[in-house]
């Protein structure tokens, strides 16, 4: 977490859990892409500043993940190995909270130009008008 920006709505322990959840939603190993997850978490946090009731609900869900991790594995969620984090997230994957977290994470994360470059998406730079629809990506071997 090399960013110099700080969270505004969430205290450090909740921010750490939030980042860990988002890292499992978009689990890229590249250090640069992990920094983007941090930026995505900061963007989510900035939205929580003005949403007091939702902020409290998010904190409760993050605390619940930590409680589950402690009870089942003796550690907080952020410190658990990825396989354990995934198992804990599978337990809540049908909840409105987790589905909202997936939507918010994916929307912000994949809307960043650095991610576009890393995954080879030309984004707005593609000016041939053809887009991806007619490039054969709908044909599988």
What does this protein look like?
- By secondary structure, this protein is mainly alpha-helical.
- The model has no long low-confidence stretch (mean pLDDT 87).
- It has 6 helices and no strands.
- It has helices at residues 12-25, 31-48, 52-73, 82-92, 96-109, 113-119.
Secondary structure: elements and pairs:
Elements: H1 12-25, H2 31-48, H3 52-73, H4 82-92, H5 96-109, H6 113-119
Helix pairs in contact: 1-2, 2-5, 3-4
Strand content: under 5%
The number of helices is 6
Please tally the β strands and state the result. Answer: 0
Unreliable parts: none
Elements, N to C (H/E): HHHHHH
Structural class of the secondary structure composition? mainly alpha
Shape: globular
How can the largest sheet be summarized? none
What is the radius of gyration computed over CA atoms, rounded to a whole number of angstroms?
Answer: 17 Å
Helix content: 55-70%
Summed over residues and divided by their number, the pLDDT gives a mean of 87
- The N- and C-terminal alpha carbons lie at a distance of 40 Å
